[in-house]
């Protein structure tokens, strides 16, 4: 399995091949919204400021030897202290939406339902939301983007104890809805349950870093964590609908991530089945219970047996009732991979569906040019196919809640070179074209697009090397400089939405 920290250091000419050029701005619907996304731990800094409690990322980024390339988020982009200027910057970029996450331990330092609220933390988010409103930028707020209060792991293993975690998450969500819900109308419960489960509790490359080598039970932990997330999401969606929606009139959703998978050998039935199975182990794991209100996919039950937790009849009933509370499918998508069926029985802690994944197929062809990270290749056709796959299976409107890439070698460039980010412009252009084709040719309902990310930031286990921003961050001076992709997006969205007027 790939590691999220694998960076492409080789310098490049910062372009894609001409064969990969985007079209001239294929149209998008007039009410299509665009924005930029961030996450608290990746940009805020102020890790120990104003009463914030430690999160699992504060701990994980300080372990010795380092598991985060020697970097940590103590200061990050110092957004916590520079927020008003950052919102000004967002306005200048022309964003409709700003997607950010709340740091749970900033507003409840110990995280639990009997613990104190940190008013200074609440004030920070209140100010941020007010600044956004003053500049006409719509907030999209994620409650959980990977930074659980450390105290919850210390007390009861956090996600590993479904009942305790769910109760604490419900309390935290209620606090957020009651303090911010008068102005926030788009709520995301969890960002990328797959990554929380697998990278946090199987490979251990992300916090809290559980893996087999460090003595954790990788056969069951990822599935228990996923189960906790599904039930906590469902319960909070129901709480919002019952207690807050009648007056606040907002909506709740969850953000799932995943690659598109193509068969390694397009003539092999085994590889075709492997690609399908990989998608079910990636998306179906969460999306079947949440959007279809039913049990995990049959292929998962068949392979995993008792390793996969069971939903009780009451839980299944709640899942069924909650399907319509999910107003959109939040999709984080970056790349496509080939899937090859493994000949031997699966490993005892397999999480893939017994599939090997890679970037090169049986003909020796690459899925697409590599970006600044090994796992992220430019493959817009795969994106288009994925949109159709999701639409056919779940028939729910999609918002792209993250998409973007670092340019190859970007971290070794001068500021002047880095802001001339032609590779990123092409990538974004191709992916936006894919959305247009999905909408107008394939009939998929896609309603918005949030680029990852507003600015270069702390890329988890890869530290500060990969630069995903449409704005450059100088980590010495903390100066922000918009890259050319920022103005590309501003103009391209205007143009694409105007072109729609002439489109049938
Ligand atoms: C996503 C994650 C983001 C960001 C992005 C780029 O999985 O939600 O926080 O790190 O990947 O790798």
From TrEMBL:
Record field: catalytic activity? Hydrolysis of terminal, non-reducing beta-D-glucosyl residues with release of beta-D-glucose
Q: What EC number(s) has UniProt assigned to this enzyme?
A: 3.2.1.21
Keyword Hydrolase among record annotations: yes
Which InterPro entries does this entry report, sorted A to Z? GH, GH_1_N_CS, Glyco_hydro_1
Keywords of the record, alphabetical order, are: Glycosidase, Hydrolase
Family matches, as Pfam families = Glyco_hydro_1
What GO molecular function annotations does the UniProt record carry, in alphabetical order?
Answer: cellobiose glucosidase activity
Annotated region (Disordered) at 1-24
List GO BP terms, alphabetically.
Answer: cellulose catabolic process
Q: Does the keyword Thylakoid apply?
A: no
Q: Where is the composition biased (Polar residues)?
A: 12-21
Q: Outline what the protein does.
A: Plays an important role in cellulose degradation. Shows hydrolytic activity against several glycosidic compounds.
User: Record's family?
Assistant: Belongs to the glycosyl hydrolase 1 family.
Q: Any idea what this protein is called?
A: beta-glucosidase
């Amino acid at each position: 399995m790939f590691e999220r920290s694998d960076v492409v250091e080789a310098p490049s000419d910062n372009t894609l091949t001409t064969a990969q050029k985007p079209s001239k701005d294929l149209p998008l619907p007039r009410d299509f919204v665009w924005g930029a996304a961030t996450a608290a731990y990746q940009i805020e800094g102020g890790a120990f400021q104003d009463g914030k409690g430690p999160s699992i990322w504060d701990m994980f980024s300080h372990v010795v030897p380092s598991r985060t390339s020697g970097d940590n988020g103590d200061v990050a982009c110092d957004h916590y202290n520079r927020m008003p200027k950052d919102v000004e910057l967002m306005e200048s970029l022309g964003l409709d939406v700003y997607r950010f996450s709340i740091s749970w331990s900033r507003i409840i330092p110990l995280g639990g339902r009997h613990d104190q609220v940190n008013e200074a933390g609440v004030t920070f988010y209140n100010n941020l939301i007010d600044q956004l409103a003053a500049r006409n930028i719509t907030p999209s707020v994620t409650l959980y983007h990977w930074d659980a209060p450390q105290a919850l792991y210390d007390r009861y293993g956090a996600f590993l104890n479904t009942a305790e975690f769910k109760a604490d998450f419900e309390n935290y969500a209620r606090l957020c809805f009651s303090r911010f819900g008068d102005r926030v109308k788009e709520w995301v419960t969890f960002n990328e349950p797959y990554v929380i489960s697998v990278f946090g509790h199987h490979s251990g490359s992300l916090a809290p870093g559980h893996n087999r080598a460090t003595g954790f039970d990788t056969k069951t932990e990822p599935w228990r964590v996923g189960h906790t997330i599904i039930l906590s999401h469902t319960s909070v969606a129901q709480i919002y609908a019952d207690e807050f929606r009648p007056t606040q009139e907002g909506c709740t959703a969850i953000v799932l991530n995943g690659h598109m998978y193509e068969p390694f050998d397009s003539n092999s039935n085994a590889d075709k089945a492997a690609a399908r199975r990989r998608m079910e182990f990636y998306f179906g794991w969460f999306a079947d219970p949440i959007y279809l209100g039913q049990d995990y996919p049959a292929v998962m039950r068949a392979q995993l047996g008792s390793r996969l937790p069971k939903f009780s009849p009451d839980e299944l009933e709640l899942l069924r009732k909650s399907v319509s509370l999910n107003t959109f499918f939040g999709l984080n998508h970056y790349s496509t991979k080939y899937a090859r069926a493994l000949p031997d029985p699966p490993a005892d802690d397999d999480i893939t569906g017994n599939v090997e994944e890679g970037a090169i197929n049986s003909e020796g062809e690459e899925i697409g040019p590599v970006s600044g990270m090994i796992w992220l290749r430019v493959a817009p056709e795969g994106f288009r196919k994925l949109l159709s796959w999701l639409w056919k299976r779940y028939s729910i409107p999609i918002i792209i809640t993250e998409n973007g890439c670092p340019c190859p070698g970007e971290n070794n460039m001068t500021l002047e070179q880095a802001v001339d980010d032609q590779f990123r412009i092409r990538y974004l252009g191709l992916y936006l074209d894919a959305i247009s084709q999905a909408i107008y040719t394939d009939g998929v309902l896609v309603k918005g697009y949030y680029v990852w990310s507003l600015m270069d930031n702390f890329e988890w286990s890869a530290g500060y090397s990969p630069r995903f921003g449409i704005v450059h961050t100088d980590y010495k001076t903390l100066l922000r400089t918009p890259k050319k992709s920022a103005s590309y997006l501003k103009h391209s969205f205007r143009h694409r939405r105007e072109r729609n007027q002439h489109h049938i």
